[in-house]
Amino acid sequence: MCPSYMATRKEKETTRARANILREMITRSDKPNPFAHDEIKDVMDLCLGCKGCKSECPSNVDLAKLKQEWQYQYYKEKGVPLRSRLIGNFELGMRLASVAPWAYNLFGGLIKLTAGFAQGRSLPGVTSKTWKKWYLNEFKPRSSDKAVYIFIDELLNFNEPEIGISTVKLLDKLGYEVRFVNHASSGRSFLSKGLLEQAKNLAKKNVAIFKDIITPETPLVGVEPSAILTFRDEYPDLLRDEEKEAAKRIAASTFMIEEFLAKELDAGRIDINLFKEQKKLIKLHGHCQQKALSSLTPVKKILTKLGNNEVHMIASGCCGMAGSFGYEKEHFDLSMQIGELVLFPTIRKQATEVVIAAAGVSCRHQIKDGTGRRAVHPVEILLEAMI
Ligand code: SF4
Asked: Burial of 60 by CB count in 10 Å (0-12 exposed, 13-18 middle, 19+ buried)?
């Protein structure tokens, strides 16, 4: 279950060890801030925050969330390191990089050095032609009684806008009115570093923006699992009172694109005749949070029923990237070791005509770095199948 344990086989790197040390220190510490122990830091260091334990541990321990809280408390006393600030402010960094992508590419080595990233890790690509700019300047939503709001997340917006654009085009061709309102970033990068105040501020902004427009009839649909699932998993926990209730209502009508399409297919609102037979063999890698908070069943359903493809799940756990973890210089080797457990060898064995699919930006990045193969997003396969 736990990728750091699977790769190292050390008791210290298990979910159990992490939960035990937290319990010990919280109940027995004589410090005013019981979280500010370097012994906890040592045991928490290799937790990828993948949420594998949330879905697979029989006690449902959500170590990723406990780590966020621990890190927040630890930083209160010890201060926030530069790298955590840089990673937390991912959206701002990408916005600056997108102004001059050539400079970002040219100074990649220096950026890695400053940020404490491994030199062996490639940086995500950045473009000035973002998903949001495309939507605002080039897309005109149709008028339809089937409407959705699209969440333009900070990862796809800058790093892989073509996947976001494909999603909007797919929904549009299926007859949906694809609406967009200017919103804040998801806060995932702040959450991943325990910068909970900043994440909470973004959660407040997004809840205020969406609370009166997201309903079962006009749901919120997102593409990048780690971003859209913050609405379901973290926002209700970060907020209180009326904001919490509003966050819960939004969460009930928030979907990953795969979940949304599968639901619509079941309800008979998608015409399967709009898709030609593809008969592709697809090897699917699941994003950790998608597996923990959603399921791979909707992905398999839409790829098989729309396009008549054959989908095989890759029996991989975490890909090893887990947001920024795989970039960090001291974690890079372990990140690749985790990839080598199942994911990389399985992909290397596949013939070139076999399609590798993965929903997460980080997963696709890790697959590229580990195997040289490009993994596609399921919406790209579906859009290609449309007549
Ligand atoms: S979040 Fe992932 S890495 Fe961390 S303890 Fe749970 S399973 Fe292990």
From this structure: exposed
List, for residues 191-242, the tens digit of each pLDDT value.
999 999 999 999 999 999 999 999 999 999 999 999 999 999 999 999 999 9
Among 344, 350, 341, 349, which Cα is nearest to 366's? 344
The percentage of the chain sitting over the pLDDT mark of 90, rounded to a whole number, equals 95
Q: Which of 302, 326, 313 is nearest to 385 (CA)?
A: 302
Query: Is 91 in contact with 185 (CB distance < 8 Å)?
Result: yes
Q: Is 291 in the pocket of ligand 1 (CB under 6 A)?
A: no
Distances (CA, A) of 160 to 76, 205, 296, 346, 359: 35, 25, 22, 24, 12
Query: 373: which DSSP letter?
Result: P
In ligand 1, which atom is closest to the CA atom of 49?
1
Residue in 44, 45, 63 to alter for ligand 1 test, most ligand atoms within 8 A of Cβ: 63
How far is ligand 1, taken at its centre, from the CA of residue 208, in Å? 32
User: What atom in ligand 1 is closest to the CA of residue 288?
Assistant: 2
Q: Which residues pair with 310 in a beta bridge?
A: 281
Q: Dump pLDDT digits (tens) for 88-107.
A: 999 999 999 999 999 998 88
Name the residue ranges covered by the structural domains of the chain: 3-79, 272-385
From ligand 1's centre to the CA of 61, what distance in Å?
9
H or E element at residue 222: strand 220-222
What fold is seen in the domain 272-385?
A: Rossmann fold (3.40.50)
Buried b (16+ CB within 10 A) or exposed e, 22-53: beebeeeeeeeebbbbeebeebbebbbbbbbb
Q: How far apart are CA 358 and CA 376, in angstroms?
A: 6
